[in-house]
Specification:
This protein is α/β, with parallel strands linked by helices and 382 residues long. The chain folds into two domains: 231 residues; 136 residues, Glycogen Phosphorylase B (Rossmann fold, 3-Layer(aba) Sandwich). Helices cover 40% and strands 14% of the residues. The chain has 14 helices and eleven strands. Helix 9 crosses helix 11. The radius of gyration is 21 Å and the shape is globular. The two termini are 20 Å apart.
């Protein structure tokens, strides 16, 4: 069957985003399907200026929002300059390994000229997280990620979709409930997401593992080896730190690695420090995780790959507006059958714990893609 997938894809710095795309397409191809990425341009489909004028004025004059606005603009300029100066080859990776549709610029574009498919899948990744946006600004994105387009007879599935939070406001529940009711099968990545689906009236929601867990370590080693191994006889700690508010003392990671006689390879999409950074491509990023002595990260997918490669890992908790994302890590440790590996007040003691051998077999209640598709087909016949 031809399967169109709606998920995040545009990043030029988020490695896990690209690899979950790769993992799901590769798996579906192995089942004999014809999967492709529906390139929905979610970044440019936000509804600005929809709030009443007086509310927009109050929000605009809020000192915290003003500081955040100018800080974000400054960091975005640095991000763009870094991507130009240090290209990581994300677009080349997508062109080589992903089947893709044309770019759809808005939800209206998707509705007016929907991609032809037997099945639409939303997921994996945090496709159902509106992040700091509210319902008014994010309505179009919500419609797209809840597959509110295309022919009525196209099957609609969520596979390992993540809400990235433990609750959603009532206005979103009211808006999303009729959209999610159209799905033929629903699976989410975290157990907390099942509770949210129940709130939407979908008592049939089940768990599915992140797509990268559909493959073993050797699959990913083959991927980086076919692109040429670049790491030879180096002893290092890999430090991968994703978007956050800069509260964590990153220098402490360098200091601990130095005390162990290791260099630190630091990869980030953030600009709150002047630490020396590296800018690997996607397959080199996998190789860096696989060959590291230790891995320290606040990234879900980096943690997941480190566990697949059986590395000694320490996870930094998220702060501020990203705190809700910590539920992803909690569920990851639980589903892999291991004790949490957080870096807490005792410093880096967790890195002294031996590497965990995880159970790559999904939990008994977790559905594989073929089981989700079969469930959707059965439901469509009823």
């Amino acid at each position: 069957m031809r399967i169109g997938i709606v998920t995040y894809w545009k990043s030029s710095v988020n490695y896990g985003e690209q690899l979950q795309n790769y993992a799901l397409q590769e798996y579906l191809r192995g089942l004999g399907h014809d999967p492709f990425l529906i390139r929905y341009d979610y970044e440019n489909d936000t509804i600005y200026g929809s709030r009443p004028v007086y509310i927009r004025i109050i929000r605009a004059l809020n000192p915290g929002r003003l500081i955040n606005y100018f800080t974000t603009r400054k960091n975005n300029r640095k991000r763009i300059n870094d991507c130009i100066k240090h290209p990581r080859g994300f677009e080349e990776f997508r062109e080589r390994y992903l089947s893709m549709s044309r770019v759809y610029t808005t939800i209206d574009d998707l509705r007016n000229d929907p991609p032809e498919a037997d099945i639409y899948i939303t997921g994996s990744d945090q496709v159902w997280n509106t992040f700091e946006g509210g319902l008014i600004e994010m309505k179009n994105r919500i419609r797209a990620f809840f597959l509110d387009f295309g022919h009525e007879d196209t099957l609609r599935i969520s596979y390992a979709a993540s809400w990235g939070r433990t609750w959603i406001p009532d206005d979103e529940v009211i808006f999303i409930k009729p959209l999610i009711s159209r799905f033929n099968a629903i699976t989410v990545r975290e157990r907390s997401g099942i509770d949210i689906c129940h709130k939407m009236g979908r008592e049939d929601a089940c768990l599915s593992s992140d797509p990268v867990l559909l493959h073993d370590a050797e699959t990913y080693r083959k991927l980086y080896r076919e692109n040429g191994e670049k790491i030879q006889n180096e002893k290092y700690l890999l430090f991968y730190y994703m978007n956050n508010d800069g509260k964590y003392n990153r220098r402490a990671v360098f200091d601990w690695a130095s005390s162990m006689g290791l260099k630190t390879i630091y990869i980030t999409d953030d600009w709150h420090d002047d630490l020396t950074r590296s800018f690997p491509g996607i397959t080199e990023w996998l190789e860096l995780i696989d060959k590291a002595e230790f891995v320290v990260t606040n990234s879900y997918h980096c943690a997941l790959f480190a566990l697949i490669f059986e590395k000694r890992i320490g996870v930094i908790r998220r702060f501020g507006k990203y705190t809700g994302m910590n539920t992803r890590m909690d569920h990851l440790f639980e589903s892999c059958g291991i004790k949490p590996r957080y870096i807490d007040d005792d410093g880096f003691r967790i890195l002294e714990r031996p590497a965990d051998k995880i159970n790559l077999k999904a939990p008994d209640e977790s559905l594989s893609p073929e089981e989700v598709i079969a469930r959707a087909v059965d439901r469509s016949k009823n």
